[in-house]
Specification:
Layout: E1 3-7, H1 12-23, E2 27-32, E3 44-48, E4 67-70, H2 85-105, H3 107-113, E5 116-121, H4 134-154, E6 158-165, E7 168-169, H5 180-189, E8 196-197, H6 198-209, E9 220-223
Parallel strand pairs: 1-2, 1-4, 2-3, 4-5, 5-6, 6-9, 7-8
Length: about 230
């Protein structure tokens, strides 16, 4: 049994990952902001956490963590001329500074493991240019840069990797997938002709937490239906 912290595990990818890790017999610590995870399990401990707060209460966590998966995110799509600088700052605070705070507060716990794993989430928009994605692209590119730097600094004790998905069928993306037309349009944009599911990304995160990926660090894995590398 290992100890894993899933930040933002009450829905979407984080929730799917929590269930997978529990099924494998691990101890899972799941944070939520407003929605309590709809699952009861003897090896699940859930607690409220605002990653944007500087005074984080992490007393429920054990002395050793074998992995952290940071799932909080936002999708703010607007024309650039309608965006305020404050919106960039708010997104950066959630997706970058929030991860920084969380990792810094748990460095000693991660080091206790001997070989722990941190998994962050980027986006296909960090490497490809899409209309109206300037906020997403800016913060997610920062996530990737942060991960590579931390991977170098924290090796060999702590591994740091990133998953870069395309649009995924989760509550976060629901307003972009709320009609059959939107779903079909998004499916057709991808070479695999379907939208990503939470389980697709959760399976990749589970792999990055496992011993099977123990020689991987500083990597950005594109799990995006082929959209970042295939033209068809």
């Amino acid at each position: 049994m290992k100890n894993f912290l899933i930040v933002g595990g009450s829905s979407g990818i984080g929730f799917a990952l929590c269930k997978m890790l529990l099924d494998e017999g691990h101890q899972v610590y799941c944070t939520y902001l407003t929605k309590i995870p709809e699952i009861n399990h003897q090896h699940l401990i859930s607690f409220q956490l605002d990653v944007r707060a500087s005074d984080q209460n992490l007393e429920l966590l054990p002395d050793q963590l074998d992995g952290i998966v940071y799932c909080p995110g936002a999708i703010n799509l607007k024309p650039f001329n309608r965006l305020k600088p404050e919106e960039f700052a708010q997104d950066y605070d959630l997706q970058v500074i929030g991860a920084v705070r969380l990792i810094q507060h748990n460095l000693d716990r991660l080091k206790q493991s001997g070989l722990s794993s941190v998994v962050l989430f980027s986006s296909v928009a960090a490497s490809l240019g899409f209309n109206f994605h300037s906020v997403v692209s800016a913060s997610k590119a920062a996530v990737e840069g942060l991960a590579r730097s931390l991977a170098a600094e924290l090796a060999p004790t702590i591994r740091v990797n990133v998953i870069a998905p395309s649009i995924t069928n989760t509550p976060l993306a629901s307003k972009y997938l709320n009609t059959e037309e939107k779903i079909q349009n998004n499916e057709n944009r991808h070479p695999m002709k379907r939208i990503g599911q939470a389980e697709d990304l959760a399976n990749t995160a589970k792999f990055l937490l496992s011993k099977e990926s123990s020689w991987m660090t500083g990597q950005v894995l594109s799990v995006d239906g082929g959209i970042s590398s295939i033209v068809n």
